[in-house]
Specification:
CATH architecture: 3-Layer(aba) Sandwich
CATH topology: Rossmann fold
Strand order of the largest sheet: 1-11-6-3-2
Number of strands: 11
Helix content: 25-40%
Radius of gyration: 22 Å
Strand content: 15-25%
Distance between the termini: 73 Å
CATH class: Alpha Beta
Structural class: alpha/beta
Shape: elongated
Length: 195
């Protein structure tokens, strides 16, 4: 038997053993299963290790500051939360930032992630999400959707081609299976849900 015919014999056997196709589930059927997407978002975000606080929009400065009492070098893109240092031009300058405050566009109840488009972070500021010791994301509670399907349906990727879904502080357990928080990103992430 030649190698070509042996190959064809094997491929024919694989094709014959394939299971019948299974239809994909109708993801629209899942939608808002539990009714309260905000409560599901809070639970999922806390499950990723994020600190979640809720309050009124007018309290956002207090809510952020209470979670980061020891923060001295604060870079803020949220008008209601004054920063202590200006926005650096060089991304490397975020390495000694104690707290980076920004505003999220969309929250996902399914996994506790928050969508941050590049236009809200701009240029060197994208680095702050990964270099700052702590990150606080302000999110309007009305901007929470049930799942990633609803999130992608709500996003206009033609207008905003780049962004990031952020969920919880970075973690790794690669070395000796010992969990390390903040190994390659912020050590702490807070989501401030406002009305």
């Amino acid at each position: 038997m030649s190698p070509l015919s042996a190959r064809e014999t094997i491929l024919s056997a694989v094709r014959a053993a394939r299971p019948a196709p299974t239809p994909l589930p109708d993801v629209r059927a899942f939608g808002d299963r539990d009714g309260d997407v905000t409560a599901r978002f809070v639970e999922a975000a806390r499950g990723t290790g994020a600190h979640v606080v809720e309050g009124e929009r007018g309290e956002v400065n207090r809510l952020v500051r209470e979670g980061y009492l020891d923060a001295r070098r604060i870079v803020s893109l949220v008008a209601d939360v004054p920063g202590t240092v200006g926005l650096p031009d060089d991304p490397h300058d975020f390495a000694d930032t104690d707290l980076f405050v920004c505003e999220g566009v969309l929250g996902v109840a399914e996994n506790g992630a928050v969508w941050l488009p590049a236009s809200r972070l701009g240029g060197a500021r994208r680095a702050a999400l990964f270099l700052a010791t702590g990150v606080a994301i302000v999110l309007d509670r009305r901007a929470v959707v049930a799942d990633l399907h609803a999130a992608y349906a709500a996003l206009d990727v033609a207008a905003e081609p780049f962004g990031a879904f952020v969920a919880g502080p970075s973690k790794t357990a690669d070395i000796e299976q010992s969990l390390v928080v903040g190994a390659h990103g912020p050590k702490r992430l807070a989501v401030v849900l406002v009305r």
